[in-house]
Design goal:
The complex is a heterodimer of chains A (113) and B (116). Chain A is an all-beta fold. The N and C termini of chain A lie far apart (41 Å). The radius of gyration of chain B is 13 Å and the shape is globular. In chain B, strands 2, 4, 5, 6, 9, 10 and 11 form a seven-stranded mixed sheet that branches. A four-stranded antiparallel sheet of chain B has the order 1-3-8-7, with no helix packed on it. The chains are: A mainly beta (113), B mainly beta (116). Chains A and B meet through strand 4, strand 5 and strand 10 of A and strand 5, strand 9 and strand 10 of B.
């Protein structure tokens, strides 16, 4: 089955710096890759997603890149703000069927003022 | 956006009792819902896929007789933790997909279960 690895487990940056979180997946059939942000005790919130027919997607300060050959995808947050502090999860799934999401272990991002 | 609710938001029960958690899609019909468990400072682990009108599909290692799932309507799935024990204490979260919008999953707010 699918396995998703996520690095780093913790990331500390200064406000205004960029943050990059990387994930790798094992199943080459996976073709949908969402990123979720979860604040303590809250539900995961979808922040951006990418499908395998696209190499890069951007939404304001957030971007995701996908390298299908290497089975890597990354989340890039620019101009970080303290409110970006949270746990970020990557996930992978295969479209069609039930679309089960397999999550990475998570990255705890701390943005210091 | 799609809204998914869960009830209760938290529950405390005695060891040996059963607890039912409800997951509802409020503004769309969900033929498929998913149940996850999240221990403190850990990731979301998929427990089972709940299909309206049919049996749930459980992930490897999840006891189907302990975690009973019923998806009796297009807007409601329930998870019953039977004979709960302290090790079942966790954050249980459901999610749902909008049919026709293939991939995106919307999560409920979660239910924190504490078994004494």
């Amino acid at each position: 089955g699918e396995n998703v690895e996520q690095h780093p487990s913790t990331l500390s940056v200064q406000e205004g710096d960029s943050a990059v979180i990387k994930c790798t997946y094992s199943d080459s059939a996976s073709n949908y890759f969402p990123w979720y942000k979860q604040e303590l005790g809250k539900r995961p919130q979808l922040i951006i997603d990418i499908r395998s027919n696209v190499g890069e997607k951007k939404d304001q300060r957030i971007a995701v890149t996908l390298n299908k050959t290497a089975k890597h995808f990354s989340l890039h947050i620019t101009e970080t703000q303290p409110e970006d502090s949270a746990v970020y999860f990557c996930a992978a799934s295969i479209s069609g069927g039930y679309n089960k999401l397999i999550f990475g272990a998570g990255t705890r991002l701390a943005v210091h003022p | 956006g799609a809204v998914v609710s869960q009830h209760p938001s938290w529950v405390i029960c005695k060891s040996g009792t059963s607890v039912k958690i409800e997951c509802r899609s409020l503004d769309f019909q969900a033929t498929t819902m998913f149940w996850y468990r999240q221990f403190p400072k850990q990731s979301l682990m998929l427990m089972a896929t709940s299909n309206e009108g049919s049996k749930a599909t459980y992930e490897q290692g999840v006891e189907k007789d302990k975690f009973l799932i019923n998806h009796a309507s297009l807007t409601l799935s329930t998870l019953t933790v039977t004979s709960a024990h302290p090790e079942d204490s966790s954050f249980y979260i459901c999610s749902a997909r909008i049919p026709g919008f293939a991939d995106t999953q919307y999560f409920g707010p979660g239910t924190r279960l504490t078994v004494l």
